[in-house]
Amino acid sequence: MSQQERNNTAGWSGDRTNALVLPGGGARGAYQVGVLRAAAELLPRRTPSPFRVLSGTSAGAINTTVLASRARLFHVGVAELEYVWRNFQSSHVFKTDALTLSRNSLHWLLTLVTGGLGRQNPLALLDNDPLRQLLKRRINFAAIQKSIDAGYIDSLSVTAAGYTSARSVSFYQGTPNAVPWHRVRRVGRREDIGLEHLMASIAVPIVFPSVRLGLEYFGDGAMRQATPLSPAVHLGADRILVIGVRNEVMDTPSMDEEEVAYPSLGRVAGYVLDALFMDGLSADLERMARINTMLSQMSGASLEGDEGPLRTIEAFVMLPSEDVREIAARHVHEMPKAVRMLLGGLGAMNKGGMQLASYLLFESGYTRELIELGYNDAMKRGEELLGFLQGEPMDSPSGIYGWSDLSSEYTVRLKALNISGSE
Questions:
Q1: DSSP string computed for 327-382
Q2: What is the pLDDT of residues 274-295, one digit of tens each?
């Protein structure tokens, strides 16, 4: 099959490059699988990957890597993801037995009391070796290059944060014309993506152990990823499907002074994870909307960037239509007793701390409900989503779709900009 035939089969317009960007989100990554399942059903069954560029961070890195390894048949890759996510148990991700968790807790306590144990200091709160073994069994990393060589995709990017360099490093594997990039506190580095890159990208600080890549240790890619859309753009994307994992309806502060409680450690930890995984995406979408709006009003003029003229990048944004914390509250009892006790000690088993639980709740009841939510959300917008994947023109000066509920807070409705110098 020729490249043009592959493009036609996938429904590409031929002059635009589709990309998929999946941010991190722990167990919330199941929502991404539901959206992808809808996309697979909307496209012809034997369609190759509709995304030329795939970029992921943390749990999103795992999802994009599976899709890259199965790029010849998009629905097969999505089916593999769904099978794993629908049957998840916490024990598939980290050791959940009472002995291991008790030993880890005592180890941390002893370290704090004694002022440190030197080389015997604990590496992390949880041991995620079960996830390492799962990924090793389920992902054919050699198939990524085969997908690239066969022309089904152009590149795959996985982002991690370097502890020594204090940089966001996007490791990418792609065609020869994908060149490295260097920006302030972020770089793109060509390497063949393997198991260690995924383990580094999901290494949430303190929760999971850091991973050594070359001469540096790395942690969760969301930590320094101020511009999560950047890797896809550097790798040639013109249109980006972004699947977030946070409902953007803000909580309403209580007006009763007696109900205002001091935040528990669990609530603070959940807040940190929420900011880690999603705030950078919100800021980057806002930045993209501003650039798109300027370009739409220039009428003959152009803006030059480091890599040539700036171009319009369109983004189709999918976000959960329901509060994921409420879904987690319905399933938190499914977690192993030892894990519930640990989270309870952190104050993460009540309503205020459910944010943390929603990221760590790797249980099938919860992940299945998130998959169904993602699927239903996407199918409600099925006609728009299919049109976006097939390259149909979208009518929006900002180029951002799916942010209507945020227009009062972000910049979907940008005021007109007075740009001089256009002809």
A1: HHHHHGGGS-HHHHHHHHHTT-SSTTTHHHHHHH---HHHHHHHHHHHHHHHHHTH
A2: 887 778 888 888 888 888 888 8
Give the three-state DSSP class for 401.
Answer: strand
Which one, of 161, 152, 162, 126, lies nearest residue 73 by Cα?
152
Please list, in sequence order, all residues whose beta carbon lies within 8 angstroms of the beta carbon of residue 8, skipping any fewer than 6 positions away.
Answer: none
pLDDT in tens, 68-101: 999 999 999 999 999 999 999 999 998 887 676 6
Res. 104: pLDDT tops 80: no
Write down the pTM of the prediction: 0.88
Helix (DSSP H) and strand (DSSP E) numbers for the chain? 16, 13
DSSP, residue by residue, 225-243: -S-TTHHHHHTT-SEEEEE
Quick one: 231 exposed, middle or buried, by C-beta within 10 A (0-12, 13-18, 19+)?
Answer: buried
The contacts of residue 7 (CB under 8 Å, 6+ apart) are 14
- Percent of the chain having pLDDT more than 90? 53
CA gap 11, 392 in Å, rounded: 10
Cα separations (Å) of 231 from 195, 239, 260, 356?
20, 13, 41, 28
Cα 175 to the center of its chain, rounded Å: 23
Please report, as a single letter, which amino acid is at residue 313: I
Please classify residue 118 by burial: count the beta carbons closer than 10 Å to its beta carbon, then call 0-12 exposed, 13-18 middle and 19+ buried.
exposed
- CA-to-CA dists, residue 86 to 34, 123, 209, 367, angstroms: 10, 30, 25, 6
Write down the residue that tokens 């209507």 correspond to: 404
DSSP 151-189: TS-SEEEEEEEETTTTEEEEEEEE-TT---EEETTEEEE
CA distance 363 to 88: 5
Distance CA 127, CA 101 (A): 9
Higher pLDDT, residue 15 or 130: 130
More confident residue, 197 or 337: 197
